Amino acid sequence: MDMTTPARSPNISLHYFHYSLPPLSTVILILWSILTAVVSIAGNTVILVGTIRHNAIKLDKISLILIKNLAVADLGSAVLVVLPSTWSLAKRRAFFDDNLIVCSVSSYIQLLFPIISSIIVSSLAVNKLIVLLKPLKTLERSGMNAHVICLIALVCGLVPAVEFLIVGGKTPVFDTRSCRCIMTWQGSPLKNTWIMLDNLTTILFVLLPFFVIIISTVWLYFFLRKVRVIQRQSIMLILSVGITYLVSFIPYLLYVTLANALKLTSAQKYRDNVVGQLYAGALYVNYLNIMCNPILYYFTSASFNRYVRRYWRYWWGRVNGSQTGPIRNLDLSYTRENAGRKTRESSRGDN
Q1: CB-neighbour burial class of residue 37 (10 A; exposed 0-12, middle 13-18, buried 19+)
Q2: Rounded CA gap, 220 and 126, in Å?
Q3: Residue 134 backbone dihedrals phi, psi, to 5 degrees
Q4: Angle value at C-alpha 287, between 282 and 293, nearest 5 degrees
Q5: Position 347 in a domain
Q6: Contact 17, 105 (CB under 8 A)
Q7: Are 118 and 147 contacting, i.e. CB atoms less than 8 angstroms apart?
Q8: Under a CB-based contact definition with an 8 Å cutoff, are residues 186 and 29 in contact?
């Protein structure tokens, strides 16, 4: 590994951590990134359209709001993180022509969406527990509770960027193994301050939600046999989301643990060693958390399963000309019988 400034950009001080990836590894990572982006963008778009317009997922109001915001966070990760890193992986260069400001901003965008996801997923699991433990009390809770949770998640996601604006002393570096910009404190007089702040941020926004999800997921698992069959679907949906999050973040948790246990400097964390490879691998494994939720909803929610099949039949019919009905046909409450009854009622009203 070497740390250099690109020769073709002498006026730009963006440094590079250079690594040589085997061609096969590069192709596999590019294909994995493209698959993640396509599945995430398509799947989360269907989730948003279905939950906002067509009541596609049958859950309590708070869970639905959290799922919508989780879909927005996953979409943001796919568009603003996965796609630029895929371009960088193919070109072996930083996105937007090595611009220092863009590199700095993108490094914090990469932290924004995972922090939001971790808080929303943990809140989703805790909310389901509350619904099961205190079903009558949940009737008094409004959707405003969920909006407050999502606002808190957004504020927490912005904390690393606010820390940088207040404290300063970090430098953007492009890592060609993970194809992402990294804010390092290498050579900074505020090194000890940043070590403390980074550790505090990791504990509050990564480790704490991680253990909350573990406890809530285990607790929910024991509810499976105690509830009616109709409630098991919603529990399985929340369980699958929580387990996928845990699996996708375990490599990152190992990376953080090793890096802190070995007391590595900012530059040593990204060198061509076991810790550096674990960091890059953790980022690509985390793509599971970005793209799997739509697939999980499809297999754990009967209503969303029906909606997705109706959704694709509808739009495929519009493309080949066999479908001419209005978009309200996608609503799960819409049937031919209902449509005929509404038509007859409107006709009687006109007469």
Answers
A1: buried
A2: 9
A3: -135, 70
A4: 135
A5: no
A6: no
A7: no
A8: no
The answer for 171, left when phi > 0, alpha when psi is -120 to 50, beta otherwise, is beta
d(CA 106, CA 265) in angstroms, rounded, equals: 22
> Stretch 265-290: mean pLDDT, rounded?
75
Residue 13 pLDDT greater than 80, yes or no: no
Measured distance CA(117)–CA(76) in Å, rounded = 11
> In this model, does residue 254 exceed pLDDT 60?
yes
Report the amino acid identity of residue 117: S
Q: The CATH number of the domain where 119 resides is what?
A: 1.20.1070.10
What total of structural domains would you count in the chain?
A: 1
| Rounded-to-integer distance, Cα 104 and Cα 184, Å | 10
Phi then psi for residue 315, to 5 deg, are -70, -30
**Is the residue at 342 inside a domain?**
no
Q: CA 32 to CA 26: how far, in whole Å?
A: 10
Q: What is d(CA 175, CA 178) in angstroms, rounded to the nearest whole number?
A: 6
pLDDT score of 198 more than 90: no
Assigned domain for 150 exists: yes
For the chain, the average pLDDT equals 80
Which of 45-59, 63-77, 133-147, 272-286 has the largest mean confidence? 63-77
* Alpha carbon 165 to chain centroid, angstroms: 25
CA distance 56 to 51: 5
Which residue in this structure is represented by tokens 């969406």? 113
What single-letter amino acid sits at 60? D
Rounded to whole angstroms, the Cα distance separating 122 from 217 reads 9
Q: Has residue 104 been placed in a domain?
A: yes
What is the residue type of 253? L
247 or 6, higher pLDDT: 247
> Are 15 and 174 a contacting pair, CB within 8 Å?
yes
The pLDDT of residue 212: 94
Domain assignment of residue 68, given as a range: 2-334
